[in-house]
Specification:
- The structure is a homotetramer.
- Chain A is α/β, with parallel strands linked by helices.
- Chain A has six helices and seven strands.
- The longest helix of chain A is centred in the N-terminal third of the chain and has 16 residues, at 18-33.
- The interface between C and D is medium-sized, with 33 and 33 residues.
């Protein structure tokens, strides 16, 4: 059995903050250092590109699940670009394909992925979440996602999750 | 051209409150009275079933987009049950197939649909939303969804939206 | 229980022959006369449009599952246009949403739907199929689809299928 | 840019013949020897498993797009198992994610993938196809898929296709 562990990194595309990008980039580096695969929504933008570049620079394998039917617009740091042709329905695939997910920043698309992660029972870690994000996901009556201050704390949490599987 | 206007009603299945169910049932009645089609996630549970029954009792047409590959478990008040076989990826279809969406209550699945509605630019009305819901969707940097106190206020808002299209 | 019976009509879009169009149009009329819903891939082209127009002219309800994320390009004879946003992955939804399928003519997209119908165990009727089509689907080691000479023979076969469910 | 070339291998699961399995296994080996990624439908059965094992034994990377929402039942030779949760709608993803496809044997699911490949304009090579398969896909009025006698001829054809992109 050679199955690779896959960690999804989700977050805003166009409207990512500098902090979101820094967190995602370091997240990619740390995921790669563990020998895990970094999965994103694949675009050459925002958190998706930053996480893919971080992982790629650290020698990790990167996977992108694109909403489009070809690979145009994919991050150049994505090794395996999968054009799903599903539009935003691909967000559920990002969730299902991840052994655990890390969220750096928030946007409508990201919010849908975080909610689908709770729905599917996939572990979800929020890096430096806003108070609104913590309150909202905590109010949904499911086990609340874990909030951590930074990427290093997230990787410690991921190690715990992956080892206990 | 005989295209029918479609209004999606979204909300919790198993964990809907009595208030969610009452709002959804009245929402279905009022949508039917306008001559519009009521669309839900199709299950025989919670807000989906209540909205379908309300619409059906008022003589309206009801459409259900099920996550499963057959119609088992569909609400008996759904006239057209569409088994999508897509699992929760069908949530994006509920959004795209709706000219506007009304949200009665909250859950992880509902949260994903509300977020996808913002992402797709579909008008979204929140009926009696919690403070956490209002704060969170308002923080996403998109035009915030409209909050209304009850189904009658929602239908007034819907009339405005549909007429201006 | 008010569940409507749904019959899918599949066939070529741009490259439909005059015979395909005539068969699809009559098919729509006959499906509507039975009180069943006519389901197609929704486009304003070829067999999809012809079947929708036939059904619509006979007072039947028509449903279209579009590959796109909005309803632009839908046949004006489609009452309920569902933009799935799934591209050609929507072909599997056309199959699953149909209680039985009727195939008028052949194309790559149609071939995928006919194959998916066999895969899903949905009854499939081929109207005036080519010898290549009969040989190929008959060679797949599943119960072969039924071939009939025209729409009237197809409706007789459909009546038998629907009544035995 | 580190984008990997992906070759899809499609064919029957449960009902694959000994010849289909031998072709798929050698196909996997040859794809891996080129440095390409081998993509399949992911199951631990038939052509999917044989191609994954062949590629894995030759040190290649293997990717599986499963119809289910978890990785249970995946071939142990699949490195990256992507549970799509889409049922047979995932067949269109197998097509879109492949730079070119090789078909070893035939079944309803395989027939849908071959048809969707023609529809999407993805290069399709048929290894040792039956006369019915050649006649049918040749009759669809698109550029017909290329038929070859064995895996070695297929890899020569693939080299030509990939180099000309």
């Amino acid at each position: 059995m050679s199955r690779r562990t896959v960690v999804g990194v989700i977050g805003p595309g166009a409207n990512a903050t500098a902090q979101d990008l820094a967190n995602a980039h370091r997240m990619g580096r740390l995921i790669a250092a563990e020998g895990w695969v970094t999965l994103t929504g694949g675009w050459n933008a925002g958190v998706m590109d930053a996480a893919s570049r971080g992982a790629h620079e650290a020698g990790g394998l990167t996977l992108g699940l694109l909403p489009t039917r070809d690979t145009e617009g994919a991050s150049p740091a994505v090794d395996l670009a999968i054009p799903t042709g599903l539009g935003e329905a691909r967000n559920n695939l990002v969730v299902l394909a991840s052994d655990a997910l890390v969220c750096c920043g928030m946007s409508p698309g990201t919010a849908s992925e975080a909610a689908l992660a709770l729905r599917a029972g996939r572990p979800l870690i929020l890096v430096a979440p806003s108070p609104e994000t913590v309150s909202f996901y905590g109010s949904l009556g499911h086990p609340a996602p874990v909030g951590v201050p930074d990427a290093d704390a997230a990787i410690a949490e991921l190690r715990r999750i992956i080892q206990s599987r």
